[in-house]
Amino acid sequence: MSVVVVAVLVVALALASSLSSTGRPDAVSGELDGAAAPPYLMAGGENPVSESQDVAAPAEVPSAPTPVDETLVSPAGTGQLSVVAGSTSQDQSDESTGVVRYRVMVEDGLTVSGDPVDGTEVAAIVHDVLTDSRGWGPLEGVVFQRVPSADSDVDVVLASPETTDELCAPLGTGGWLSCFNGSATVLNARRWFSGVESYGLDLVGYRRYLVSHEMGHYLGHQHEGCPAPGAVAPVMVQQTKSLDGCTKGPWPSGA
Question: In the chain, which residues fall in CATH 3.40.390?
């Protein structure tokens, strides 16, 4: 047997001894033992994504806003209100459904941490709350349409604590409560940006409650009490003051 043939046989035998029963080198097999399968490997060993392709990363979830220090919300603006430009279309899918035309207004000179309040952002949040399936729409048989004109049915106003007190008079808001008065739901900017103790860091949930509660007054609903300790608070409970033994309930549906 030639020297070349012998050398080939020796190399082949060495390689075979280094393979596990799976046919992979022991070093690689050991790295995979007990490890989860890569995300692109599906049940049954199928691989619908080529290993040469990048697996799409999960979409980044934007962080929810957190309450700010009350002292960073301007205690007073100019006292003048400006309509937030823009409107939404009316849902014509059910002609028997009533339409509530609302207008969003923000006080001029209102600031948070020294920055002007973004009225467009406020209007988007209000619209999301009013058109949510957990909101008043399905319960009252109405749809909410935002309009920029003065012939709105109700105004949603974000105002400084000082202006809120003026707009809510003779109701006593004391610089920290909100109200419904006349044809306006007046949201206290201090609460909008700082939240309340009962909702903790859940500013998203509190804003949902605030819009829903004050719009509930426009729709004719009065304050309620907590029905039982530990129950979800009806949205007409004065949750800014206290949950009264209930758990927080930002939606009229009780969801």
Answer: 72-218
